[in-house]
User: Fold this.
Amino acid sequence: MRGGYRACYPSLVLGKIFGSIFRFLPGVFRRKIVRLGQRRFTVTAGAFVFDEQGRILLLEHEFRPESRWGIPGGFLNKREQPEEAMRRELREEVALEVDDVQFLFVRTLARPRQVEIHFACTTKGNPTPSSFEIRKAAWFAPDDLPDDLSRDQRRMIKRAINVREKRRE
Assistant:
């Protein structure tokens, strides 16, 4: 307020009008309106699966453009919890059940707009590719990963191992 005069800005007036209307809308409509203004993103769950010898499971994926090798994982289905999605993906892709599941970390990717939720787990089973998406499943020592494994996957594996080690201390 300057000198007793209050400026009337169109955006402030419109904001008050829309705010008044918005408050009286049913919740379902308010949520839909908010969703229109929010960016959409996908959510995935990934698994760093370790065996009894400390090796990590990597899958040779059919559809990975840069490097075919990577950790298992996939998209969450509607109303599915991240750990459930990770377990489902392991069953679907390599017919594997896991134990000792621990949340590790979350990361976001700007492109594609994606949130990744990562877990560490162990298994005593042997992975058997059971999906057309997977060419091979193999165990690798952390210091002997495939040559064509992407830098991004290498960094995530290193991060997962570091987080697990810190938690054991």
Q: What stands out?
A: The chain has two domains: 1-38, 42-168. Residues 42-168 form a domain with the Nucleoside Triphosphate Pyrophosphohydrolase fold (CATH 3.90.79.10). The mean pLDDT is 86. Residues 59 and 142 are 14 Å apart (CA to CA).
